[in-house]
């Protein structure tokens, strides 16, 4: 049963001692909050319904690059990497990933440090600080990550499948990004990657297409109050959920055998 303010209780198994509640903030951000009085670790995850399918033409890997950049700094916490440092210094860990239609950020931390951890986390989506210096350094980090992926058969097979798919469907895109796709080619086309990055965040990181989960020791009412304080300032730009009609492969892209000839040298 759902209340008029967007709250609803969640059904759970009888042996589950945790309590659950779904809430919707005034900015239309949906959140699932979980209370577990016995836990010694708290955690949070934010899913943004935008991935590399939404990369603009000529800047392949921008969504993934933005994922990296949000970890750096914000207007409220301008010291670079202070978010990650805070999490690790208080018994936690943090990471993120970018997929076709989603970008997900998450962390865990010792329970008594959750509030500041959440405050730092929320600033990713409110006022990130994307300095020019950090932009160049993180493009290099994205490029290094791709160089590492080149040695992985799983990543190589994934990219081969994309390469063989229809060029008219976004599955064909190269979603990881490199120095070439994020710096060299955009510059050749007169594009400023940092401006593209800021515009992508402004347009796509809208509260109404975000979903938050917070797991904590406090009561549901206490967690709800905390979430409302920290995340209500995320802008709701009215972004619609993106749909990608069509298919990644037609008959011409299927039933192919791909071989590689090994050099005798």
From TrEMBL:
<dbReference type="GO" id="GO:0005739">
    <property type="term" value="C:mitochondrion"/>
</dbReference>
<keyword id="KW-0645">Protease</keyword>
<feature type="domain" description="Peptidase M16 N-terminal">
    <location>
        <begin position="32"/>
        <end position="165"/>
    </location>
</feature>
<dbReference type="InterPro" id="IPR011765">
    <property type="entry name" value="Pept_M16_N"/>
</dbReference>
<dbReference type="Pfam" id="PF00675">
    <property type="entry name" value="Peptidase_M16"/>
</dbReference>
<protein>
    <submittedName>
        <fullName>Uncharacterized protein</fullName>
    </submittedName>
</protein>
<dbReference type="InterPro" id="IPR011249">
    <property type="entry name" value="Metalloenz_LuxS/M16"/>
</dbReference>
<keyword id="KW-0479">Metal-binding</keyword>
<dbReference type="GO" id="GO:0046872">
    <property type="term" value="F:metal ion binding"/>
</dbReference>
<dbReference type="GO" id="GO:0004222">
    <property type="term" value="F:metalloendopeptidase activity"/>
</dbReference>
<comment type="similarity">
    <text>Belongs to the peptidase M16 family.</text>
</comment>
<keyword id="KW-0862">Zinc</keyword>
<keyword id="KW-0482">Metalloprotease</keyword>
<dbReference type="Pfam" id="PF05193">
    <property type="entry name" value="Peptidase_M16_C"/>
</dbReference>
<dbReference type="InterPro" id="IPR007863">
    <property type="entry name" value="Peptidase_M16_C"/>
</dbReference>
<dbReference type="GO" id="GO:0051603">
    <property type="term" value="P:proteolysis involved in protein catabolic process"/>
</dbReference>
<dbReference type="GO" id="GO:0005829">
    <property type="term" value="C:cytosol"/>
</dbReference>
<feature type="domain" description="Peptidase M16 C-terminal">
    <location>
        <begin position="193"/>
        <end position="257"/>
    </location>
</feature>
<keyword id="KW-0378">Hydrolase</keyword>
<dbReference type="GO" id="GO:0043171">
    <property type="term" value="P:peptide catabolic process"/>
</dbReference>
<dbReference type="InterPro" id="IPR001431">
    <property type="entry name" value="Pept_M16_Zn_BS"/>
</dbReference>
<dbReference type="InterPro" id="IPR050626">
    <property type="entry name" value="Peptidase_M16"/>
</dbReference>
């Amino acid at each position: 049963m759902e209340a008029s303010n967007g709250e609803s209780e969640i059904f759970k198994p009888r042996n589950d001692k945790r309590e659950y509640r779904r809430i919707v903030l005034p900015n239309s951000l949906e959140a699932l909050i979980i209370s577990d009085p016995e836990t010694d670790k708290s955690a949070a995850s934010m899913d943004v319904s935008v991935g590399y399918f939404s990369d603009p033409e000529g800047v392949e890997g921008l969504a993934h690059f933005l994922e990296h950049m949000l970890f750096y700094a914000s207007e409220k916490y301008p010291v670079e990497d202070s978010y990650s440092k805070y999490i690790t210094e208080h018994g936690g860990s943090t990471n993120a990933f970018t997929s076709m239609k989603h970008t997900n950020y998450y962390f865990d931390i010792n329970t008594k440090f959750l509030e500041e951890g959440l405050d730092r986390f929320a600033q990713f989506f409110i006022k990130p600080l994307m300095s020019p210096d950090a932009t160049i350094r993180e493009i290099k980090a994205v490029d290094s990550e791709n160089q590492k992926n080149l040695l992985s058969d799983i990543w190589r097979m994934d990219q081969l499948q994309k390469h063989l798919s229809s060029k008219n469907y976004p599955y064909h895109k190269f979603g990881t990004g490199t120095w070439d796709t994020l710096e060299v080619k955009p510059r050749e086309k007169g594009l400023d990657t940092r401006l593209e990055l800021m515009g992508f965040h402004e347009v796509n990181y809208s509260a109404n297409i975000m979903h938050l989960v917070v797991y904590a020791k406090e009561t549901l009412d206490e967690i709800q109050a905390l979430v409302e304080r920290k995340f209500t300032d995320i802008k709701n730009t009215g972004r619609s959920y993106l749909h990608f009609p069509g298919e990644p492969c037609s008959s011409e892209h299927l039933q192919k055998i791909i071989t590689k000839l090994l050099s005798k040298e």
